[in-house]
Design a protein that fits this description.
single chain, alpha/beta, 2 domains, six-stranded mixed beta sheet, disordered C terminus
Length: 399
């Protein structure tokens, strides 16, 4: 957190990062390592009203005037009850001023992705302090910027007083402010709760999605969709309208105030449908290779639920993810590139079987179809006939 007035925080080039950085919940959220880039200030904070007028979204660096812009927005919308914070820090005075606004208005604070350095001074003033399981709160000692990118550590007594006044455990504050300015300490959620920093760890389906708080344009939604399902990048060059359609529907979900979990489910479902539509126009050899990939994925899925999603519901995204070390994604991408050279067809619709089917049955019957080498039957099995998808493949009529 930069102590000097008018100077933003360049929080990485951080030499030592104390604590895990990679999110546990893969999906729409950004990895903090890709946000805190070496030797560069982030963008100025974007402060916007969320859907329904109950949330304010703050995204970006806490530069001069950020707190004042937030105050004006809160004055204009007195029904706001929660502040979403996504920031790699900035000016101490701005973080503290935002914290004062939070406390005076009785707002809850919520970190959907990351809140680092001076941002934490705002977060800890929340009436309720909420994170998700993969959110990152980062702490270190305050500093003044010196020549040639040097960080000159300064007295931290004011910051210590603010953290203690917010009810944080003294030992936690000592460790937070004892972390050198060029490093960052990122405690896990259990430590944050034990120290009184966090009052609730939410699930991805609990709160409105904040993924597009920095950019809710179609381009921003497209980028978020690609983060969620990398396989969609195959459509960018050959069938960009497919990717744009998914992005537009995800953006609408965000603007309606639906949760990040809902948004991720939407993208994954639509991506799986786009893959099936692409493979419906593929040649027989490509479809046969897809069948072998799906069989391998069911065997590696690790649970009855995941196996059924792949083998009964036609979830090609889950199929690609089931094989270890990215092997399934690489195989699926190679097949998808081949399939996209063919015509695009509408994605088959879902018609699940009326009775239960075990994973063993799904694998045995698909293996039988592959062994018989009947392209028409295999195509019907994997991609559906008369509107059927892979769930039909699990229960082909025996000859």
């Amino acid at each position: 957190m930069a102590a000097g007035a008018g100077v933003g925080l360049a929080c990485l080039g951080l030499v030592g990062l104390a604590g895990p950085l990679t999110p546990a919940f893969g999906g729409l959220s950004r990895d903090i390592e890709t946000v805190l880039t070496p030797d560069s200030d982030g963008p100025p904070a974007r402060v916007t009203l969320g859907p329904g007028g109950r949330d304010v979204r703050l995204w970006g660096d806490l530069n001069d005037g950020t707190a004042e812009r937030l105050r004006r927005l809160l004055d204009a919308h007195p029904g706001v009850t929660r502040l979403h914070l996504t920031s790699d820090g900035g000016l101490v005075d701005e973080g503290a001023a935002i914290g004062e606004l939070v406390a005076a208005r009785g707002l809850s604070t919520y970190v959907p992705d990351y809140c680092v350095s001076a941002c934490t001074l705002a977060f800890v003033r929340g009436r309720e302090r909420i994170i998700m399981g993969d959110s990152r709160l980062g702490f270190h000692a305050p500093y003044e910027p010196g020549a040639f990118g040097r960080m000159i550590q300064v007295d931290a007594s004011e910051e210590r007083g603010r953290y203690l006044a917010a009810g944080l455990e003294p030992a936690f504050v000592d460790q937070a402010l004892g972390t050198p300015s060029r490093d960052i300490w990122i405690p896990d959620p259990a430590r944050l709760r034990a120290a009184g920093v966090v009052t609730r760890v939410a699930d991805p389906g609990d709160l409105p999605d904040s993924t597009l708080d920095d950019d809710d344009s179609l381009a921003g939604a497209r980028a978020a969709s690609l983060r969620a399902v990398d396989l969609l990048s195959a459509f960018a060059a050959r069938r960009p309208g497919v990717l744009d359609g998914i992005a537009a529907r995800y953006r609408e979900s965000y603007r309606q105030g639906r949760s990040e979990g809902d948004g991720l489910d939407l993208i994954r479902s639509e991506a799986s449908g786009a893959l099936r539509a692409a493979f419906a126009g593929a040649d027989d050899a490509t479809v046969a290779s897809l069948g072998r990939l799906i069989l391998d994925a069911m065997a590696a899925s690790g649970s009855e639920e995941a196996c059924r999603a792949i083998g009964r519901d036609g979830d090609l995204v889950t199929a690609a993810e089931a094989l270890p070390e990215g092997g399934g994604t690489r195989r699926m991408r190679a097949l998808l590139d081949r399939a996209l050279a063919g015509p695009g067809l509408p994605a088959p619709t879902v018609h699940r079987p009326a009775h239960a089917v075990t994973c063993i049955d799904l694998r045995r019957r698909l293996a039988g179809i592959l062994d018989r080498g009947d392209p028409a039957r295999l195509r019907d099995a994997l991609l559906g006939r008369s509107g059927r998808r892979l769930e039909a493949s699990a229960l082909p009529e025996e000859p």
